Amino acid sequence: MSTQITNEDLELSVLELDADSPKAAHRASEERVSVSKPRGEAASRLSSLDALESEAIHIIREVVAEFEKPALLFSGGKDSVVMLHLATKAFWPGKVPFPVLHVDTGHNFPEVIDFRDRTVERLGLKLVVGSVQEFIDRGELAERADGTRNPLQTVPLLDAIQQNKFDAVFGGGRRDEDKARAKERILSLRDEFGQWDPRNQRPELWNLYNGRHTVGQHVRAFPISNWTELDIWRYIERENIELPGLYYAHDREVFARDGMWRAVGEVSQPLPHEEVIVKTVRYRTVGDMSCTGAVESDAATVSDVVIEVAASTITERGATRADDRISEAAMEDRKKDGYF
Amino acid sequence: MSTNAILHGTAAELETALPTTLFRFATAGSVDDGKSTLVGRLLHDSKAILADTLDAVARTSADRGFGGAGATGTQAIDLALLTDGLRAEREQGITIDVAYRYFATDQRSFILADCPGHVQYTKNTVTGASTADAVVVLIDARKGVLEQTRRHLSVLQLLRVAHVVVAVNKIDLVDFSESVFREIQADVQQVARELGIGSAELGTADHIDDLLVIPVSALDGDNVVDRSERTPWYDGPALLEVLETLPAADEIDTQLESFRFPVQLVIRPQGALAPDAVAGGLDVEAFRDYRAYAGQITEGSVKVGDSVSVLTPGQAARTTTVTGIDFAGESLQEAFAPQSVAIRLAEEFDVARGDTIAAAGTFPESTADLYAALCWLSPKPLREGAKVLVKHGTRTVQALVRSVSGKLDLATFKLEGASSLELNDIGHAQLRLAAPLPLENYLHHRRTGAFLVIDPLDGNTLAAGLVKDHPGDHEDERYSI
Fold first, then answer.
1. Of B131, B314, B417, which is closest to A206 when you measure between CB atoms?
2. pTM, to two decimals
3. What is the spatial distance between Cα A317 and Cα B382, in angstroms, rounded to a whole number?
């Protein structure tokens, strides 16, 4: 048991020359701390939204500072829109210093694609698109029997990450969305195959994020991990953030399937026994049109939605995502394979 | 106190409920003390569990033959299923990893780090406690204070968690006996005294009257969200009331606190301004030479006009004045922890990521000699002579492990001889850094006193490090981690 300083290590010994007397420095610090000033009364309480915003901006800046080539997954969905908004605040008055990546299932709501393009234009961003349709056309992906393309996004996503040499990918994933996501780290390592190993994750301590990775690995960063659906909506309301219109109540031709209201569209056709009716609906999540359902709602404004979400008794994924109903561990299985 | 007016009220109630503050807490417990059930109960009774999740849990509970209706008369569900997220956890009926849960009352939004007790308990407790404002430690009323309880309390004291709350669970199984509870309470307070928990001499602890001990039944809900009529001898608050009212770590002022701001990056658009900001009327000319230092305030506060020191390790501190505090187009007069802002300085210093801006004259010189307590979190043991990386604030440097000077016996809180550290060990070590760092004692500065030890080969996090004073410098060896 030794606390002696030895000079055995030649490689480091040269550095000892410029080491000041540490003892003196530490003593000095103890004396000086008395000059610190008390904090103002009003200053000591940050609202929960401000605290979450501050945490997210810290994480976004850390990733930009420590990684060579980050990108932001952008679907036009509310979580990715909030992510992009946070990024604009993190680097103001500069431009957001990374491109956005959209994995396009080909089963899009047209208004979401329009929203995506307008947003990219407004912020002067580069848009990278990974296309599920192209993979299907080339025979590298096969259409599923149930027609949903959500699980098919993983291959084009990993391909785009590899092709563009992205070493960090921001996602809008939140821990309150799903039980598997509840165990996700804020910086989450992915191996050469894009896989998540939930049983072997790095401990995440204080606000020190360890993003070290080796060649071929990349990191997924989830700055809004700690936000709930209600936090997202309250923030959208407070910051006056524009969203695709389908998040708000509108009249739409729908039919009932799997206990959800599905929109009638090119890729979402009713079967002969499924009756098409016009309902006032809105979407709580925006994904592949073939598996995303609408909820009956007359919440036409953001404050209506905040109230509706606060009073909701069903989780957003349970209400609107057919792919998460497949099994108890549907999300965990997709994430292990490299999904968002 | 209207803990049941959770976020499911009328629009009017919702409007008056805003804004809430954020409170982070963790739970720590031993095997089978009902921690998952307690967490499930908090989520369930605070109505954070939505109907479809509850239905799924009820179905699985029934499938597995979970029986015995709770005293509340609700359907018998295995509340633990609410928190076990991974397939392997549900299959094996154990909790593997720290899981994060969210719920809110009209007072606060809560982030709960649910730390499993039996597998790698130190690793999980350290992880959960590192960001927690409070930790709830569970004790089984039938078993009382166990060695595991002592270990948990030791780790929490080591990490200087602002508040520790002990929940004596399964009080229903000892017939709501006051004498059983009082005995456990006395034992807990004895351990706490030995460890120095709740004693005013320790940093933030002067804001805690004492360690709180609460009798609860997680299964039936007694004293979890609402005060129970079945413990008439207990006149203290229910657990959720406590969590709603304790000050968060950032709300506690300490005398030792002063402004600390590790620079994350420099914002210097050089004409490449955000198009949306320009479209919104930003004066392009005025921002041509804009330069600000972005970061998150780790402690204390700063005002425009304050005198600050810029600390670049290896250089003498440079003193200047804060000329502006910017946040996304807003000019602030004052900012405080944990705000993320961008700070402008009077002088055109060369300031970069890894530098720290601090209240002038309050920061120690950087040093390349690091004395620390290490919580070893990796299956790969620490050996003397190992080369590692140290991540501190916004800087990562190479380091050599000079010596391991002992290992803490968590049951006795005494240092015993050791020359290596294994998974879940907590020990003292001396490291030599390849470049000096602005280190501060963790006891007084929870952020600038904390660091990670990282494996340079695979990048994995090996240890949580707490900066200690250099040997011989501190007055009180007993609680000096």
1. B131
2. 0.87
3. 44
